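Complex 356.
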Amino acid sequence: MTKQTLVRPARTLKSTRPFIPDLVYFEPGALEYPKGKQIMDFVTTRGIEYRMTTSHNRITNLPGETEQEKYRIAKRTLVVGVRKTLTFDQSKPSADYAIPISTGCMGHCHYCYLQTTLGAKPYIRVYVNTDQILSKAKEYIEERAPQITTFEAACTSDPVGLEHITGSLQELIQFMANEEFGRLRFVTKFHHVWPLLDIKHNNHTRIRFSINSDYVIRQFEPATSRFDERIDAAAKIAHAGYPLGFIIAPIIWYDGWEKGYAELLERLAKALPSDVTDGLTFEMIQHRFTKTAKNVIEKRYPKSKLEMDIAKRKQKWGRWGQYKYVYPNEQQTALREFITERIFEYFPMAKIDYFT
Ligand code: SF4
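Predicted structure with iron/sulfur cluster bound:
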């Protein structure tokens, strides 16, 4: 018998699939809008269970026995409603205003601040009255012209992960393309950018990818796109001519962080086409938490390795009327200097917007 060498096929990682909710709620008023009807088509053609609700603010009968189960189910539940509050919140330091097209997210990042800001409403809400939202954006732009007004579309959600269902980012991007004094920006951990590649943007939208060291992504960011998928999507976005940026957040101090963040920048430089580095921006946000967030995270992700030891942190007064815990000055400086150096080593033309 001849000895045969077994050649194992190369292991291919499965692509992160676009989000399909398990359950959808509709406000009856939402079905009067084209986007509401379009989402209903999306739901019925896929046989997804749906229910009607009187208000997107009050979903009281979510399934699930325990708090944890309810939370998991809520993260796979979509609520389709009409946005009534058309006053936009401020969104510093990233932009002038938050433009509301969705809230909530299907990702399970352990540290995510939506866990506390969305409180008892962790389900995903999308708004169908985009025309009214855009009219309000136009008012803000006109008030401030000729100053540029920037809008952040990802303050309370990750809208790229919902774009195949709503199409809202396409509308925002195309609207902003025609606004001399308006700019749009959003950030994502998802790679599902294909609906955005062939539309007119006029360089008025900056798309940023949230990236991190491989360790942080694997440990703390379940149910989001993998590092390679995000980088691949970033290259596509760059080829489509959009201004591009990266948010390194949360920057986490762990054994081996220097190696992890050095590798991150090296891999980024290898993956991106060389001509995209002009105008590239980086934002850096160190990990922080409040006592409220720590309690919630420990309940929802009890096995998480996320370090939240108050004794090892520096207390800082937060603008939401609560102390937050950041790294002590020495660690902050070490993180900021090391990562900044790596950024400029690989991307000498890049601009660092802030470290916070
Ligand atoms: S992808 Fe962003 S919004 Fe979604 S859970 Fe993760 S950190 Fe939160």
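The first strand starts at residue 23 and ends at 26.
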